[in-house]
Amino acid sequence: MTAPPISRDPAAGRIVVEGLTKQFRSVRAVDQLSFTVEPGSVTGFLGPNGAGKTTTLRMVLGLVSPSAGSATIGGQPYRQLAAPSHAVGAALEASSFHPARSARNHLRVLCIAAGLPVGRADELLGLVGLTDAARRKVRGYSLGMRQRLGLAQALLGDPAVLILDEPANGLDPEGIRWLRGLLRHLADEGRTVLVSSHQLNEVQEIADRVVILSRGRLVRQGTIAELTAGTDRVVVRSPDPARLHEAVARAGGDVTPLDATGMQVRGLDAAQIGHVAFTEGIELHELSARRTDLEDLFFELTAGGPR
Ligand SMILES: Nc1ncnc2c1ncn2[C@@H]1O[C@H](COP(=O)(O)OP(=O)(O)OP(=O)(O)O)[C@@H](O)[C@H]1O
């Protein structure tokens, strides 16, 4: 791919969402939502089904009018951008292609419409790994292949900002690895990459930062390391759980019983708990440190699930 003329001004590709709200009759799909997405990183936009992710992305792209608040890209609402297809590339749905057209023809038509050389179509098909299937009709494409085609379409105008709704849907583990590499490469070139998903394990592999949404509201934003910091815990088991519980609590551990013999401890590490048990002469049957991953955190933060 040719080197993109990405602006060096970091504000140019910044997405700023402020107080964004969307009311659909009785449903408040997005509620006073504020967050920022910075260039040069891959940001995961996370939330359970119905959390309001797609509605937010559609507002950022000027496809849905907000009931209140604003969304800007480089300081401008999408509809006021001077060259929107160069500024922003988006893939919101994987199925909106003419079924009887080949991927190659589909992209060539778009190139012509956008005043780009048709050779760009083949360049993009190569980039998304569709060269071998380029002349086949889209009707026969798998969901993963449609995702790749959607990504190629989003990249057509060499955009500084890339917005992808559930791009990993339908991709196999190899495809997800490929997507991660491509998005990382695009972010390293200085682009802003915003990727929505309800699949936590996928986002954990793909994104540097996350914005977590639940019931239309922001619950957290930050790097994955920031969000999981200080939440590690130790699982410990003993045939004498009552004594262990008491001894660990006395040493400053925050203990939550798990079952008849096990408990979870925060505030002390495994070595400290082992030491307490040793000095108190308490037998242990398990002592294991558990790192909190994004998935644990997500369930904690969005408890209640879909509306
Ligand atoms: N055009 C619409 N009219 C009425 N309600 C809508 C409309 N679009 C979305 N909603 C509602 O707004 C809420 C948020 O939907 P949205 O599609 O934005 O969530 P999402 O986080 O993208 O979910 P998913 O992961 O399932 O795609 C849902 O309750 C949905 O039913």
Classify the secondary structure makeup into a structural class: alpha/beta
The major pleated sheet works out as:
6 strands, mixed
Distance between the termini: 42 Å
CATH topology of the largest domain: Rossmann fold
CATH architecture of the largest domain: 3-Layer(aba) Sandwich
Q: How much β-strand is present in the residues?
A: 25-35%
Distinct ligands:
adenosine-5'-triphosphate
How many E strands? Answer: 13
Average of the residue pLDDT scores: 89
Q: Any idea how many domains?
A: 2
Q: What is the 3D shape?
A: elongated
CATH class of the largest domain: Alpha Beta
Number of helices: 11
Q: Give the spatial strand order of the biggest sheet.
A: 5-6-7-3-8-9
Instruction: Catalogue the unreliable spans.
Output: none
Rg computed from alpha carbons, rounded to a whole number of angstroms:
24 Å
